Amino acid sequence: MQQLTCANCGNTYTGQFCNQCGQKQAHRYTIGHVLHELLHVFTHADKGIFSFGWQVLTKPGTIALDMVEGGAKRYF
Ligand SMILES: [Zn+2]
User: In terms of pTM, does the model score above 0.70?
Assistant: First the structure.
């Protein structure tokens, strides 16, 4: 097993997780990771904003009422 040094606490350990603080072995972020995250950011936001735009057009009063009653989380 390869000896690893925890980037969080400096403990030397083997395996996937630090036995001192529990942090997972750090890995380098690749361009693939970044693109994947970017895709997530945009797809979630777009879905939210299109849905919001559609609801504003079709039932404008419902969103306002939901917001007042505390249901704001589901809107973009
Ligand atoms: Zn650690």
Answer: no
